[in-house]
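User: structure tokens for this one?
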Amino acid sequence: MVYTKTHLEDFIENIYTNIGIYHPRQLNPEEISARLRIVVDYVDGTSKCVEHSQFSLIMLNQNLSSAAQWQEFAHELCHLLRHAGNQHTLPPFFLKMQEWQVKSFALHFCSKKLDLTDNKKSAISIIAQTIGVEPDFAGEWLEQWLLQCSMVYYGN
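Assistant:
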């Protein structure tokens, strides 16, 4: 079976290559934001991002676990890199579409190539521990990846 990456996976791989991120241990908000010249601040409130002509800022909820903060960072980074404008002024359909795009981006952005076992529960644990995400998030990524692989398999 030949796995073909999606355009989103290529986009994310290009980001990582351009900023010199090659190992799962480099996957954290501080290192990536520094390399992208994005300010990260930890706040007692909802995670969000702000973009001005001079700088970009991602505010992460300081009360979340580091795994949840990493996932929120990827979520907000997608908004900065792929969306423009104020979400609060968008029609509900566009808002829903952006959130779907963000979820897909975050699943791919938080993951790197891993050596996984055939046991699904063990694979989820490996993903969660290696890339620092919560088990539910790792399970979603694994399901998406397995679905993509099966489409490649049945498509050939």
